[in-house]
Structure formats: C-alpha cells, structure tokens
Specification:
Layout lengths: L4 E6 L2 E6 L6 H9 L9 H20 L5 H15 L18 H18 L12 H5 L5 H38 L4 E6 L2 E7 H15 L1
Antiparallel strand pairs: 1-2, 3-4
Length: 213
C-alpha cells in the first residue's frame, strides 16, 4: 500500500512529505540528500533544542515580536517533545551538510507543525506557525546548534556522568575503609617505594575523582 503524502513548497520548488509527518520539506530533502550513516541525533540534543526554542518563543512574545498565542503553542509543542512524544520525527542523519542546519530545521518543522495543530491548523500549512518566521525568529543555526551542544553536554553531566561518578567514589571510599588494615608496597616509577595502606590508595582514587568532578 502506497503511503499517503502531502506536497510542500520551498524556494527550490515542491517536494513530497509523508502525510502524517510532523517534519516538513527541509527535513525530507535532508533525509534523501544525506543517507550516510543511519545514525540519528541523540535525544538529549533534541531536548536541548526544545528548551532553546521555548525560551526564544517566550522572549519574542515579551518583546512584542511574536503573538502570545503563537508563543504559547510553540512552548506547548516543545513540551510535547520533552514529554517523549514524536521521537520518531527527527530522521536526519548526524552526518549532514553545514553546521547542523538540516537537524535544526527538522526541529523547527516538528515544532511548527505541532504548534499549528494546537492552534487548530493542520500539518504542512505554515500560515499559523512558520518554522522560520515564528519558531526560529531572531535565531540562526550558528546560535542554536552550539548552544544546544553545550546544553546537552551539561544535561548529560548532570543526569548521567555525575551520578555514576558519585556512586564510584562512594564505592571506592567504602573499599578504602574495608582495606584500611592491609599494608602494601607503594610504587613509584614502577619500583617499590615506601609502604602504603591499600585503603589509602583507594581513598586517593576517590579524592581524584571528586576533584575531577
């Protein structure tokens, strides 16, 4: 059975997009132009872009550059993505032309189409909410993508690395207490040196990890 499509237009002409897709013509072009690795953007990077777009929509509304209803719809669309919806709507390969423009436009289109639905419109009709004019107002890939990279790195540090390192340092501390009574030769430049407690070594590892954090 042939999958239904809709026709969207951009400066290069018309292009078919899956009818039920939240992404649009820029995303579909990128999918066909860059079938390179099969790898997709990490969900954390998508989430970082959603936070950026929410903040931009709110500020643009406060500055009078974006109607309040459009701003609220964009914010809600981002919340939907952050809640775990539409994760299959970001199909652009991680290897692509430029500085992440295709991925950025993918995000803009998903937000715009969902926001349009929230306002009573339909996917592919960008009169209510436009990916560039509204979702991306006052922004550029050269702003958004580096910011998203840094934000997603911070989120991964907070949610993944720091908790793991904390557990490891706690375990090393516990083993340091457990093995406090065991004496061994210290090692310096691959040679035996002054005696040291095995527990002291493990405590030193824990301290090094804490300093690294």
């Amino acid at each position: 059975m042939t999958k239904k499509t809709r026709i969207e237009k951009d400066s290069l002409g018309e292009f078919s997009v899956p009818e039920d897709a939240y992404f649009g013509i820029q995303t579909q072009r990128a999918v066909e132009n860059f079938p390179i690795s099969g790898l997709r953007a990490a969900l954390t990077l998508v989430e970082a872009v959603m936070y950026i777009k929410q903040a931009a929509a709110q500020v643009n509304a406060k500055l009078g550059l974006l109607a309040a209803a459009k701003s609220q719809a964009i914010v809600q669309a981002c919340e939907d993505v952050l809640a775990g919806k539409y994760q299959d709507q970001f199909p652009v390969d991680v290897f692509q032309m430029g500085a992440g423009t295709s991925f950025h436009m993918n995000c803009n289109e998903v937000i715009a189409n969902r926001a349009s639905e929230i306002l009573g419109g339909k996917r592919g009709d960008y009169e209510l909410v436009h990916p560039n004019d509204h979702v991306n107002r006052g922004q550029s890939t050269n702003d958004v993508f580096p910011t998203a990279m840094r934000l997603s790195a911070l989120m991964l540090l907070r949610d993944k690395l720091y908790p793991s390192l904390s557990s490891m340092t706690d375990a090393l501390d516990a083993k340091g207490d457990e093995f406090h009574g065991i004496l061994k030769s210290g090692r310096t430049h691959l040679q035996d040196a002054a005696p040291i407690r095995l527990g002291q070594e493990l405590k030193a590892y824990a301290k090094s990890l804490r300093k690294g954090m």
